[in-house]
Design a protein that fits this description.
mainly alpha, 23 helices, 0% strand
Length: 524
């Protein structure tokens, strides 16, 4: 059985599909059943409502402020008419089939099935024993003790970041064993996942650079899998995103809003505020008129988020106008050019801080935003009633309990990894070492991209922290398998003449001939 293609017989496909479907259900069901409705985030309407509008064209465009909630135009600038200004198209497109009656309930299942498929592929790549019990045992532990099911049950693209990291591992280290159709599936899947969130592009770029350097030094045979399995999806995703913005805004850019987000980070850290103080006497930037407000923050709004999202923030004041975006790019560029050491030091500090901010998002118990309630009120009454009765909407979601369970699982996983590294130092399979390296690299890149380029928030690292318990279980599963094989070799001999129940070869001959192919040939 290949990693992504189970076989040619219909029965093999059926068994494989059933296995993945059940595993996806196991991952998605716990939090969905607990909350009584898919979880949401403040950004959920920005992804789901455009998908809803595609199927229900009588509704006003979701990316424009609705009439009943519109801000005072005298104090706020216009929003961008580009539907993809703030968010890439990938997740919106994936949500289109589910943006209708009953479809909301299938979003967690679809995300859980994809998670189960990629987890299965990673286990096969790591040469873990192919037992149903082991696979479902690992999935059950992830579903009951980690953050994975929470992100699977949320209508947000955060769940896919950990899957991107695992799929990089599969595409690189299983590339040679895959038939061409399976390679194409891996490339297409990683391309689609890269278009879902802009942070995925940066993570993939870091993966290509780090794995490429390692391969050039240690194993040049891996360069082709890296190029075909990771670099190619990255290039395709960049091309698709540029095309989407060309079609909707007339500009072939990956993201129109990237300069604004980068400037928000530099303002939050301070270097951009210092640059503006020096530059405003000779430059007529829009932000010069609000220089004394750029250091503001509020509960739930650190300085960078205040700049971007608060009703009194600079972006809301000036709007997503071409001038504001162009000036944001210039200010960010000049800040980095004139204060590189400050920018780098803040980036490293934010990366380290983000690396250890792994709790569940604190907005899970916040009041529901009006836009979110407005969105689900458009769905059938049964769906809206379920949304209104959910624990999250009633601010009763047991975030602290789930945090405690996750912390215990994470502590046990880290202890197991450290113990395994010490006790089985020379017996860890090379594929498992590669998995640990890719996951470690992915955790670092995720922290650097999100913490270094955005505000430090728990949910950013929480979306990938479940990879640590997964890695620990893979180490334990493969170590037990190798120990069993080693015990069999000690009992029955070594080499090609293992007994049928241990491996393929000539049956063992008791006595002095055991383990000696030359004596067996002489005896024959």
């Amino acid at each position: 059985m290949h990693v992504l293609v189970p076989g040619t017989e219909p029965s093999s496909w059926f068994r494989f599909a059933l296995k993945i479907l059940l595993a996806g259900l196991l991952i998605s069901a716990p939090v969905l059943a607990l909350n009584g409705f898919p979880l949401t985030f403040d950004d959920t309407p920005g992804y789901l409502e455009p998908a809803y509008n595609i199927l229900h064209r009588a509704v006003p465009p979701a990316w424009m402020p609705p009439a009943d909630l519109a801000s005072d135009p005298a104090s706020h600038g216009p929003a961008s008419p580009n539907i993809f200004f703030l968010r890439p198209f990938g997740y919106m497109v994936l949500l289109v089939p589910f943006a209708s009656a009953l479809g909301l309930w299938l979003i967690p299942l679809a995300q859980g099935v994809l998670a189960a498929l990629i987890i299965h592929a990673a286990l096969v790549t790591a040469r873990a024993p192919r037992h149903w019990a082991l696979f479902f045992g690992i999935v059950a532990v992830l579903a009951l003790t980690t953050s994975l099911p929470l992100h699977v049950a949320t209508i947000m693209p955060d769940v896919f970041t950990g899957l991107v990291i695992l799929l990089v591992y599969v595409n690189v280290f299983q590339w040679r064993a895959l038939p061409i159709p399976a390679r194409l599936i891996g490339v297409a899947t990683l391309t689609a996942l890269a278009t879902i969130h802009l942070s995925h592009l940066a993570i993939l770029a870091g993966m290509v650079a780090a794995l490429g350097l390692w391969s050039a030094w240690k194993d040049r045979g891996r360069l082709l899998p890296i190029a075909g399995g990771v670099l190619l999806p990255l290039v395709l995703a960049v091309g698709l995103l540029m095309t989407s913005n060309l079609l909707t805004a007339g500009r072939p850019v990956v993201s129109e809003s990237s300069p604004v987000f980068l400037l928000a980070r530099l303002i939050g850290d301070g270097p951009a505020r210092d640059y503006l103080k020096d530059a405003c006497p000779t430059h007529a930037y829009l932000l010069c008129d609000r220089l004394d407000t750029l250091d503001r923050s509020a509960p739930g709004y650190p300085t960078s988020d205040y700049f971007l999202w608060h009703p009194d923030g600079a972006r809301r004041h000036f709007g997503d106008t071409p001038r504001f975006v162009e000036e944001a790019a210039e200010i960010a560029h000049q800040t980095i050019a004139t204060r590189p050491l400050e920018v780098v030091s803040h980036g490293l500090y934010n990366t380290a801080a983000q690396l250890f901010h792994v709790q569940l998002d604190d907005t899970l118990t916040d009041p529901v935003k009006p836009l979110t309630r407005r969105l689900f009120s458009r769905f059938p009454s049964g769906d809206y009633d379920a949304f209104d009765r959910s624990l999250q909407t009633r601010q009763a979601f047991p975030r602290d309990v789930l945090d405690l369970v996750q912390d215990i699982a994470l502590a046990v996983a880290i202890a197991a990894l450290l113990t395994g590294a010490v006790r089985r130092r020379g017996r860890i399979d090379e594929r498992v070492k590669a998995l640990l390296s890719v996951i470690g690299l992915g955790l670092m890149l995720n922290a650097a991209v999100t913490g270094g380029l955005s505000a430090v928030h728990d949910r950013y690292q929480n979306r990938v922290i479940w990879l640590i318990p997964f890695a620990a279980m893979v180490v334990l599963a493969t170590a037990r398998s190798r120990d069993a094989s080693a015990a069999g070799r000690r009992r029955y001999g070594s080499g090609w003449n293992l007994p049928p129940q241990v491996g393929a070869g000539t049956p063992v001959v008791e006595g002095t001939l055991n383990g000696s192919p030359s004596r067996l040939r002489t005896a024959r």
